[in-house]
Specification:
Order of helices and strands: EHEHHEHEEEHEHEHEHEHEEHHH
Number of helices: 12
Number of strands: 12
Structural class: alpha/beta
Radius of gyration: 21 Å
Bound molecules: nicotinamide-adenine-dinucleotide
Largest sheet: 10 strands, mixed
CATH superfamily of the largest domain: Isopropylmalate Dehydrogenase
CATH class of the largest domain: Alpha Beta
Length: 355
């Protein structure tokens, strides 16, 4: 039986990197067909919304989706489609492996990290009050009264909710993944020394749940120190679990350790649906140039194939990727090469044929 998967090409470099991913998956022998559903700025012009209901319906029907990046206007304009999809489908776990392939130039060796980022709460909840609005004034008045602390009248306010429910399920996900993937250590990342209520709750939940997994080494690290530790000795860490914002920042840092954003894949997973996408954004300055590295999107496709139990096809692509990087001849600009995205993909597919 074929798996039907929703494909959201995205914008900027999205259509080209997802195109390379589709070609690779089709060549892998996986039993997958793609159902295209467009979202983002282009659709906004046609449909009046950047995330039409039929996109969500398609993902709900197929249960599995893969997407390219989608541009989010900065400061004003529509809210992030990426965040909206994660919230609407309750894709609470963001899984981002950061593994260094031999052959890729990096000051590090043996980096093999997995970031498990909470995907629905924290400062990403989208509860924001713009400066000067009656709502902002009301929120400020209430908070000043309750907290007995001053907030300047010309402030904007963003709310950071972190719940026991949200923390428990992401931390449990991190440990269950550690058990399944034979991992040795889970580190909870937080800033509980300063944000005692919210990050304090996340840390308290992590410490409580850690007791259920005695075979795994559990510890925690304050996010600023975590950044320094990751730059100095990333090989000492294994799984990092974090609230939404720190998880996002640390993901990009970890992408930098393994050769850059062109490499780093991701998965957004909930109890009902799963949506796969690279860590990187739409990199508009490279759009249409066939220049960027499609590996992050192809590797997100590998994660999707494993999710669909298409292990043989996933291994086939992964082994060919390893060979392409080991050889180091046909690689894109970000890794010091001259190949276009298409040339890289052609070479990868050729290697798959030889595997
Ligand atoms: P970005 O990740 O798009 O690009 C930052 C830089 O990383 C690029 O200029 C490029 O040098 C490098 N890069 C990114 N992808 C690469 C690839 N495949 N190969 C080689 N190099 C690559 O980040 P940004 O410029 O901050 O964001 C651009 C837009 O993307 C924004 O609108 C942002 O909101 C959006 N975004 C979307 C997602 C998503 O769809 N999930 C994620 C992050 C950012």
């Amino acid at each position: 039986m074929k798996h039907t998967v929703t494909l959201i090409p995205g914008d900027g470099i999205g259509p080209e990197v997802t195109g390379h991913m589709v070609r690779t998956i089709e060549a892998s022998g996986a039993k997958v067909v793609f159902e295209i559903a467009e979202a983002g700025e282009k659709v906004m012009k046609k449909e009046g919304t950047p995330l039409p209901e039929y996109v969500l319906d398609s993902v709900k029907k197929n249960k599995t989706a893969i997407k390219g990046p989608i541009t989010t206007p900065v400061g004003s304009g529509f809210r992030s489609i990426n965040v909206a999809l994660r919230q609407a489908l309750d894709l609470y776990a963001c899984l981002r492996p950061a593994k260094l392939y031999p052959g890729i130039s990096s000051p590090y060796k043996d980096v093999d990290l997995v970031i498990v980022r909470e995907n629905t709460e924290d400062l990403y909840a989208g509860i924001e009050f713009f400066k000067g609005t009656p709502e902002a004034k009301q929120v400020i008045d209430i908070v000043v009264e309750l907290s007995k602390k001053n907030i300047r009248e010309d402030s904007a306010v963003s709310i950071k909710p972190i719940s026991v429910y949200g923390s428990e399920r992401i931390i449990r996900f991190a440990y269950d993944y550690a058990v399944k993937d034979n991992r040795k250590r889970v580190t909870a990342v937080h800033k509980a020394n300063i944000m005692k209520a919210t990050d304090g709750l996340f840390l308290e939940t992590a410490r409580k749940l850690a007791k259920n997994y005695p075979s795994i080494r559990s510890d925690d690290c304050i996010v600023d120190n975590m950044c320094m530790q990751l730059v100095k000795k990333p090989q000492e860490y294994d799984i990092l679990t974090a609230p939404n914002l720190y998880g996002d920042i640390i993901s990009d840092l970890c992408a930098g350790l393994i050769g850059g954003l062109g490499i780093a894949p991701g998965a957004n997973i909930g109890d009902k649906y799963a949506l796969f996408e690279p860590v990187h954004g739409s990199a508009p300055k490279y759009a249409g140039m066939d220049k960027v590295n499609p590996t992050a999107t192809i590797s997100s496709g590998i994660l999707m194939l494993r999710h669909l139990k298409e292990e043989k096809a996933a291994d086939r692509i992964e082994n060919a990727l390893k060979e392409v990087f080991r050889e180091g001849k046909v690689i894109t600009y970000d890794l010091g090469g001259k190949a276009s995205g298409s040339e890289f993909t052609d070479h990868l597919i050729k290697k798959m044929g030889q595997a």
